[in-house]
Specification:
Rossmann fold, 8-stranded mixed beta sheet, globular, single chain, 268 residues
Length: 268
């Protein structure tokens, strides 16, 4: 990725699975929208460490799934899972979305969870999706919602403001770049897609406590770039400031933080 303030996805690949339970509801919604038949080929773009493609492969042993991601570290983790489980119908390879090494009209279905907005060139990546999808083939993508609908990202963005250089701030604008109404629609139209539905959905990040949430932040290295720029003594201050912002989301059963995402289902 050329966007320098994004996490280093290659280096944090071994820890990315810590986030999978948080975003699992999105993968479930995507697979519910997807209808596959025996013998079909599915492409999962920006696979990360393998989900939701691996879940799909376990459910449907009679289809073929290929997953790609620009970060080699992510692909190494995903492929290790394939080998550990001895899955025969899925494989992963390192490949940027903007340069898919497949012929035109190759796949019956394409899925992409929280990847398009992180592409170096989202329009080019969507054009490639359109190119390799068969006529009549379907796609399901999910992108994060508008900035104001991303509380946890807003917390870190607010707290690090003035503490780290502007170019090194948590990438709120990138993560939410396709979330405003009409933005992803326009991009899909420009890529060649004309038949699709857009559904704005919500799910919660659920934690037993703020400390559990903070443990995930620290353990996963999602904000490592920003923390490395601060003196060690500042780290506790950052935690305290974010904890104050999270206070509004503490319930009787723990920390529950709603996040919006945009689910798009369509066909070529």
């Amino acid at each position: 990725m050329t966007n320098s303030n994004q996490p280093d996805w290659h280096k944090m690949a071994e820890k990315f699975d810590l986030w999978l339970p948080c975003i699992a509801p999105v993968g479930e919604a995507m697979l519910t929208a997807l209808s596959v038949n025996t013998g079909e080929r599915v492409l999962d773009i920006a696979s990360g460490t393998g989900e939701p493609a691996l879940t799909l492969a376990r459910i449907h042993s009679d289809i073929t799934i290929e997953g790609v991601d620009a970060a080699e570290g992510m692909i190494n983790v995903a492929q290790a899972k394939v080998e550990k489980e001895d899955l025969k119908n899925i494989s992963f390879s390192t490949m940027p979305a903007e340069k898919l090494a497949y012929p035109d009209d190759t796949f019956d279905h394409i899925i992409c969870r929280f990847g398009v907005m992180l592409f170096e060139n989202p329009l080019a990546g969507l054009k490639e999706m359109h190119r390799v999808l068969k006529p009549g083939g379907t796609f399901v993508i999910a992108v994060w919602g508008a900035g104001e609908k991303m509380p946890t990202m807003n917390w870190s963005h607010e707290v690090f403001k003035g503490k780290v250089p502007a170019d090194d701030m948590p990438p709120l604008s990138i993560v939410t770049s396709l979330g405003a109404p009409g933005v992803v629609d326009e991009l899909l139209n420009r890529a060649g897609f004309t038949e699709f539905s857009v559904d704005r959905k919500e799910f919660n990040y659920d934690f037993a406590s703020f400390d559990d949430y903070w443990n995930l932040i620290e353990t996963s290295d999602i904000l490592k770039r920003q923390f490395d720029m601060l003196p060690e003594a500042e780290h506790d201050n950052v935690k305290s400031e974010i904890a104050a912002l999270a206070g509004d989301y503490i319930t009787g059963s723990g920390l529950k933080v709603p996040h919006e995402y945009v689910l798009v289902y369509g066909k070529k």
